[in-house]
Write a structure and sequence with these properties.
This protein is an alpha+beta fold and 147 residues long. It has a single domain, classed as Impact, N-terminal domain (Ribosomal Protein S5, domain 2), CATH 3.30.230. It has four helices and seven strands, in the order βββαββαβαβα. The strands form two sheets. Strands 2-3-6-4-5 form a five-stranded antiparallel beta sheet, sandwiched between helices. A two-stranded antiparallel sheet has the order 1-7.
Length: 147
């Protein structure tokens, strides 16, 4: 499983709009929601807080994306697609947008949100994290069979 070693913040400016990407390690949906709440509180005056996450729970990957008021499919889904292509799990990427007064259009929004998330991922230290075994007995069983 590929994930990040530590949290990363990256920023880009597109036609006077500021996009701040927070890429954070999370191990549960509750943790992802708590981080999203913190970011919203920190940037309370921002227009949008779009996000995507991929979290491994009980041997399956849970995914979610949100455009947070941006036109449908222009923010969250492209960022989720990026996480999928990079095969990253147990991460949330939240991109906060401060509107700069110039409309970007749907294509411009997709590019800006994707570039923000990509910049954060490019700046992150990616690590390979071993999957945890289901129980201690499953790791003992192969040794038992050797006797």
């Amino acid at each position: 499983m590929r994930t990040i070693k530590e949290d990363v913040i990256a920023q880009i400016v597109e036609k006077k709009s500021k996009f701040i990407a927070n890429l954070c390690y999370v191990s549960s949906i509750e943790e992802a929601e708590a981080i999203l709440k913190q970011i919203r509180k920190k940037h309370y005056d921002a227009r949008h807080h779009c996000y995507a996450y991929r979290i491994e729970e009980k041997e399956r990957i849970l995914e979610k994306a949100s455009d947070d008021g941006e036109p449908s499919g222009t923010a969250g889904p492209p960022m989720l697609n990026l996480l999928q292509k990079q095969e990253l799990t147990n991460v949330i990427v939240i991109v906060t947008r401060y509107f700069g007064g110039i409309l970007l259009g749907t294509g411009g929004l997709v590019r800006a949100y994707t570039q923000s998330a990509k910049t954060a991922i490019d700046n992150a230290s990616i690590i390979q994290q071993e999957k945890r075994s289901r129980s201690k007995s499953s790791s003992i069983l192969p040794k038992f069979r050797e006797f």
